Amino acid sequence: xxxxxxxxxxxxLRQSLASKGGEVVTLIQDARTxxxxxxxxxxxxxxxxxxxxxxxxxxxxxxxxxxxxxxxLDSSTILVSIGFGLGxxxxxxxxLEWPQGMRAAVLLSAAAAVSIAQTVFDLLFTGWVAExxxxxxxxxxxxLERGYAAGFRYxxxxxxxxxxxxxxxxxxxxxxQERQLVDARSAAQQAQLTALRYQLNPHFxxxxxxxxxxxxxxxxxxxxxxxxxxxxxxxRSSLATDPGKLVPLEEELDHIADYLxxxxxRFGDRxxxxxxxxxxAGQAFVPGFLVQPLVENAIKHGVxxxxxxxxxxxxxxxxxxxxxITIENGVPPQTTDLKFGGGTGVGLxxxxxxxxxxxxxxxxxxxxxxxxxxxATICIPEIxxxx
Length: 387
What we know:
Blueprint: E1 3-4, H1 37-62, H2 68-75, H3 78-94, H4 100-132, H5 144-217, H6 221-239, E2 246-248, H7 249-267, E3 271-277, H8 279-282, E4 285-287, H9 292-303, E5 310-319, E6 322-330, H10 346-359, E7 364-370, E8 373-380
Parallel strand pairs: 3-5
Antiparallel strand pairs: 1-8, 2-4, 5-6, 6-8, 7-8
Helix pairs in contact: 1-2, 1-3, 1-5, 3-4, 3-5, 4-5, 5-6, 5-10, 6-7, 7-9, 9-10
């Protein structure tokens, strides 16, 4: 579907995001907010419980015949491992702002240190239990071979503990930055919509004041006064509208009716307008004051240069879930060669930019000429409806 008002094609609008070369923007001032203690405790406890679950069968086999006391004592060393793990997490948080190379060296050295400390504790704990609680523990090896094997396993697990901290931190940082990027884009889009929306006011006001001036020059003072009153009322309602707000199409058409009342003062019987809007289409949401510039162009290029009545037809329908708004206006015979966009083109470019800002490439604005008519069509896919 297409929406037209003139014969020339609209310039394509392409927007891209530009980044500042070489500039790094820090979105988060305190990196520790992405490494909360609750997350560190959860990761550490979960990891060491998993390790205990893996080593529980050999622990049970090692203390066969001792009952569950030996298994419980041997398993209790996991509490020390969790403590060392939380110590690593404290160091992990404290070094988040350090240079990466230095930080990696410090954390790996700390992992090696706590692995050795954990191994020494295990050997000492085995000796203490053998002497004071379970004499059967005296048969457990406490030599360098056991210490080396245990230390290597602890180094692997503590390093994995650090890797989990880093993965969790990086993931939380990524999610937060993505949310901030979405918020930033949303704010930029809102600012763009606001600027584009308010761009319409001076554009329309300039044309309206020219019309009032023309009425005064031709001594149509009563018409000029009436048009001034309608203009002030229209501008009050337009300025009260939220620039980024989507409104039901029927509300948009009400604003257009107010605008046409202003132009009717100037053109009288030469302005002939009909509106066809199905109930479903009237409930569809559109950006406020989206259609008005197209109606304004229809008057500018159709009604203004004509000595005879020019019919403008506004039609809105919903087809397969898409809202299509069509504005068709006749062209007087004496202006057959009139080119679409002969003015500044602000209104049409504004409409195209606003559609792009809200809907991206999904929504379209097209303008074509058919014989003695110009037709402009806006098509918005997958519309939302007022309930």
